Amino acid sequence: MTQEDMPTRKVDRKVKEDTRRNQPDQSKLSYIYVDSGRRLLYGNPCALEVTHNMGFEYVLEHRPDQTSREQWRRFQNNLWVKTKLIFTKGPWWKSTVNKRFKECAQASGDFRG
User: Fold this and answer.
1) DSSP-assigned letter for residue 5
2) Is 34 in contact with 59 (CB distance < 8 Å)?
3) Is 41 exposed, middle or buried (0-12, 13-18, 19+ CB in 10 A)?
4) Roughly how many angstroms between the first and final C-alpha of the chain, as a whole number?
């Protein structure tokens, strides 16, 4: 096969293929660290989709032997993510997530303890 026979995606020579505007937007998820996952529907794909659409994900982190420095960093991270959610998704973002979690639980038959 010669070089001319190989298929290519590039049709117009003026368009640069690897420029940022030609690629889809990739959103980076933020993480909220929690001690207990009893109200999170952890492992439910519907609940995971809800949080991803909001731009964050809950992460279980239960370490009883944490130092005060690690606890402070976790608090700062959670404060930053929650503040960002207030400005991007509105001041009632947490009630919206809980409402959608409840709908996901009813649809899939999950029980939140």
Assistant:
1) G
2) yes
3) buried
4) 63
Q: What is the pTM of this model?
A: 0.71
pLDDT digits (tens, 9 = 90+) for 18-63: 666 656 666 789 999 998 877 788 888 898 999 999 999 999 888 8
Residue identified by tokens 């899939």 is: 108
Closest CA to 27 of 4, 64, 61, 52: 52
Beta bridge partners of 31: 57
Residue recorded with tokens 């109200």 = 39
DSSP-derived 3-state class of residue 19? coil
CA 1 to chain centre: 44
Amino acid found at 38 = R
Separation between Cα atoms, residue 2 and residue 19, nearest integer Å: 27
Residues 6+ apart with CB under 8 A from 93: 54, 85, 86
